[in-house]
Amino acid sequence: MNKNLHKLIFCRVRRMVVAVAEFATSHATEPGSGTGVGSLPVLRAVACAAMVLLGTASTLTLAQIVPSAGSGAQVLQTQNGLQQVNIAKPSAAGVSLNNFAQFDVPGKGAILNNSPTIVQTQQAGYVNGNPNLAPGQSAGIIVNQVLSNSPSQLRGYLEVAGPKAEVVVANPSGIVVDGGGFINTSRAILTTGTPNFGANGSLAGFNVAGGNITVQGAGLNATNVDQVDLLARAIQVNAAIYANNLNVVAGANQVDHNTLAATPIAGNGAAPAVSIDVSQLGGMYANRIFLASNEYGVGVSNRGVLAAQAADLTLTSQGKLVLAGQTNASGSISATARDGIDNSGTTYAQQDVVAATSGTLTNSGVLAAQRNTTINAGSVASTGTLGAGVNSDGSISTQGDLNVIASGAVAATGRNEGGGNTVIQGASVNLAGSNTSANGVLSLAAISGDMNLANAATTAGGALNASAAGTLVNDGGKLSSGGAMQVAAGNVSNAGGQVVTQSTLDVSTSGAINNAQGAMQAAGRESIGAASADNTAGRIVSLNGDGLNVTTTGALVNGAGGTIGTNGALGISAGTLSNQGQLTAATDATLNAQSIDNHAGSVVAGGVLNATTAGALSNAGGTLSGATTTVSAASIDNTSGDIEGDTLAVSTPGALVNRGGKLTQYGAVDQSINAGGALDNTGGTIASNATNLSVNAQGITNDSGTIQHAGTGTLAVTSEGALSNAAGNARRLL
Fold first, then answer.
1. CA distance 625 to 606
2. What does the pLDDT read at residue 733?
3. 179 three-state secondary structure
4. What does the angle CA 287 – CA 288 – CA 289 come to, to the nearest 5 degrees?
5. Please, what's the b/e burial string for 481-506 (b: 16 or more CB within 10 A of its CB; e: otherwise)?
6. How confident is the model at residue 24 (pLDDT cuts 50, 70, 90)?
7. What SMART domains does the database record attribute to this sequence (predicted)?
8. 8 Å CB contact between 389 and 370
9. What local confidence, expressed as pLDDT, does residue 524 receive?
10. In whole angstroms, what is the distance from residue 497 CA to residue 456 CA?
C-alpha cells in the first residue's frame, strides 16, 4: 500500500485500528462527510473485510509461530509482513504464559505485543493494541513455552511492542540461534527447561532435563538487553554472542529464576561429554560473563573467545574445564572445575585470576593477571606462563602476587612471574629449567617431597625462602635474592649451581649438602648447616664483615679448588674436616672437628686462627696462618706444611711431625711448642721471634732440622726421652 495514500481507521469487525486507502473512513460518523455518504459504508466494509481476510490469510500461510490450542495467544501479521503475537493475559504476578506448537523467528523478526493500545515498534512501525490486555495492563515477563519435537529457530529479532518486558523462550527440544536478538527487552532467557510457576503465577524457575542450545552462523546479538541467560543441558557456541551480562548455566538442573542457583536433577538420557562448548569459530563477548556446568563429570570447553569486556568472567564446571582459546576479562576471572583445568590458550584478567580444581591444572599457554593470580589445585603441570602483575603489553609491574598451591605435585617448568610476591607450594615442586621470579618475596615449599630447581633461574627482589622435606636440587641453576635467603631441605644439591643473595643466607639440612663446583654466596651473614657437606671446587663465601659459619655433624669436605671464606669471622664446626682448598677469614677463624685434614689445603685468618680437634690434625703440604695461631690436636702432622702466626701456639698430647715443615712465629710474645709424644723436625724448621721460646716433647728428632730463636729471651729445648740432632741446628740468633 502506498504510504502516501493510506490512513488509520477503526475496524469494528477486527475491533482495532487498521491501515486503509486514503479515501476510506471509519465506521464512526465523521463530520463533513458530505455527498456520497451512501457509498462510503460499502467502501468501509470492503476495506475492513479485506483487512480481516489479510490477517486471516497471514495467520494461515505463515506457520513459523503457531500457538497451541487454548493458548490464549493469537498470531497475526503486521503491515510489513512480520508475525505479531498478541500475548496472553498476564497473571497477578505479571507473567504472561504463551504455549506454542512451533516458535521460529525468521530473519525479518517477530513482534510480541505487550501493549493494550496502538504503539510504534522498530521492526513493524505502528501495531494495534493487544485485545487480550486490559487498559494499563502489560506483562513484566513473557514466557513462550514451546511444546514440539523440533528445536526453535531464532534467526531474527524478537521485539516487545509496548512496555519493556522480560522474554523467555523455553523449548525442551532445543533452540538454534542464527542471527537472533531482542528489542525492547529487559532480560532474555533461552532455555530447554520447563518453566515452574508459583502459586500467584510468578515465574519460579526451570527444570532442565535435556536439550541443546546452539548458536551458529550470524550468532546472537543482545547488547541492548540488560541480562541474557542461556539455560540448557548442553550449549554449543559456533558463532559470536554479544551481550551485557551473560549467564550460561548447563547441565540437568532445577534453576532458580531470580538467582540462577542450580540444583542438580535427573537428566533425560546419557549426559553429554561437554556441556558448554565454544568452538574456534565461536565467542562470547559481554560486559560480564558467568558460565556454569553443574552436571557431575561434564566439562566446559573454550576454543574460541570468552571476553568479559567491562567486568568479571566466572567459569564453573563439575567436570573438566578446557581453555584453548582466548579467555579474558576487564575485571577478574574465576575458574573452578572439579576434574581439572587445561589452559593451552591465553587466559588474562585486568584484575585478578583465581583458578581452583581438585584435579590437575595443566597450562601450556598463558595464565596471568594484571593484579593477583591464585591457583589452588590437586596438582599443577605447567610448561607455559603463570603470571601476576602482568601488564597488557607483557611487562611486569611491581605489584600483583602469584600464588600456586597444590595438595599434590607442582611442576611449573615454564615462566612463573610475580610482580609482587610469589608463592609456589606442593607436595613436591619441580621448577627445572624454569624462569621463576618475584619482585617481592619468593616462597617455595615442597611439603613432603623433593624440589627441583636444576638449570632454573629463580629470582626474588626481596626475601627468598625455599624448603623441601626431601632433596632440594639446584644443579646448574641460579637461586638469587635481593633480601634475606633461607634454604631448608632434607638434602641440598647445588652442583654447578649458584645460591646468591645481596643479604643474609641460611642453608640448613638434616642430610647432605653438595656444592661441588657450585656457589653459595651472601653479601651479609651466612650460615650453612648439614649432616655433611662437599664443597669440592665450590665457593661458600660471605662478602661483608658479618661472618660465615659452617656446621656439619659429619664430614665437611672442601676439596681441591674449593673456597670457604668471609670478610668477617669464619666458624667451622664439623664431625670431620677435610680441606684441600682454601679457608679464609678477614678476621678470626675457628676450626673445630673430631679430625682435621688440611693436607695441601690453606687456612688463613687475618685475626685469631684457632684449629682444635680431639683427633688427628694433618697439615701435610698445607698452610695454617693467622695473626694469632693456636693449633691443638691429639696428633699433628705438618710434613712439608706451614703453621705460622704473629703469635703461635702448637700443642698435642701425641706426636708432632714437622718433617720438612715450618712452624713460624713472627711476633715477640712468648711461644711454646708442646708434644706429649715425639717431635720429629727432620728437615723441618721451627723459627720464632718470641721473647722466650720453649720446645717440649717426649723425644725430639731434629736431624737436618732447624730450631731457630731470634727473640731477646731464652730458648729452651726439652726432651723427656731421646734427642737426635744429626746435621741439625738448634740455636738462638743474636
1. 8
2. 61
3. coil
4. 130
5. bbbbbbbbbbbbbbbbbbbbbbbbbb
6. very low
7. Haemagg_act
8. yes
9. 98
10. 9
The answer to whether the beta carbons of residues 334 and 311 sit under 8 Å apart is: no
**Which residues have CB under 8 Å from 242's CB, separation 6+?**
219, 220, 221, 222, 223, 285, 286
- Side-chain-facing half-sphere of 71: CA atoms under 13 Å: 25
Average pLDDT over residues 483-492: 99
Q: What is the pLDDT of residues 87-113, one digit of tens each?
A: 999 999 999 999 999 999 999 999 999
Sheet of 253-256, strand order: 194-197, 203-208, 253-256, 262-264
Distance of CA 318 to the CA centre of its chain: 20
| Partners of 317 in the β-ladder | 293, 337
In whole angstroms, how far apart are CA 17 and each of 2, 14, 30, 131? 18, 8, 16, 11
What length does the chain have? 734
- When the pLDDT of each residue in the chain is averaged and rounded to a whole number, the result is 92
Supply angle C-alpha 547, 553, 555, rounded to 5. Answer: 90
Q: If DSSP codes are grouped into helix, strand and coil, which group holds residue 53?
A: helix
One-letter amino acid identity for 74?
Q
The DSSP letter of residue 462 is S
Q: Which residues are CB-neighbours of 680 under 8 A, at least 6 positions away?
A: 655, 656, 657, 658, 659, 701
Between CA 187 and CA 286 the distance in angstroms is 14
- pLDDT value for 297: 92
DSSP string, 321-376: EEE-SEEEESS-EEEEESS-EEE-SEEEESS-EEEEEEEEEEESSEEEESS-EEEE
Cell digits of residue 266? 535427573
Q: Which of 486, 480, 492 is nearest to 466 (CA)?
A: 486
Query: Quick check: helix, strand or coil at residue 677?
Result: strand
CB 589 within 8 A of CB 567: no
Predicted pLDDT at 16: 43
Quick: pLDDT tens for 547-584: 999 999 999 999 999 999 999 999 999 999 999 999 99
Residue type, 638: N
Per DSSP, the three-state class of 461 is: coil
In sequence order, what E strands does 531-684 have? Answer: 532-534, 539-542, 548-552, 555-558, 563-566, 570-579, 582-585, 589-597, 602-605, 608-613, 616-618, 623-632, 635-637, 642-652, 656-657, 662-665, 671-680
Number of helices (H), then strands (E), belonging to the chain: the values are 1, 78
**At CA 416, angle to CA 305 and CA 389, rounded to 5?**
70
Query: Mean per-residue pLDDT for 719-734?
Result: 85
Say how far apart CA 568 and CA 546 lie, in whole Å.
Answer: 5
pLDDT at position 20: 45
Output the nine-digit C-alpha cell for 522: 651472601
Q: Give the position of cell 703469635.
A: 647
- Find out whether 88 and 98 touch, Cβ atoms under 8 Å: yes
Strands (E), 389-476: 402-406, 409-412, 415-418, 422-426, 428-430, 435-438, 442-446, 451-452, 457-460, 464-473
153-173 mean pLDDT: 99
Cα 667 to Cα 537: distance, rounded to the nearest angstrom: 34
Residue 258 in 3-state DSSP?
coil
Residues sharing a CB contact under 8 Å with residue 450, sequence separation 6 or more, in sequence order: 428, 429, 468, 470, 471, 472, 473
**Helix residue spans in 126-266 (DSSP H):** none
- Domain boundary assignment for the chain: 6-61, 604-732
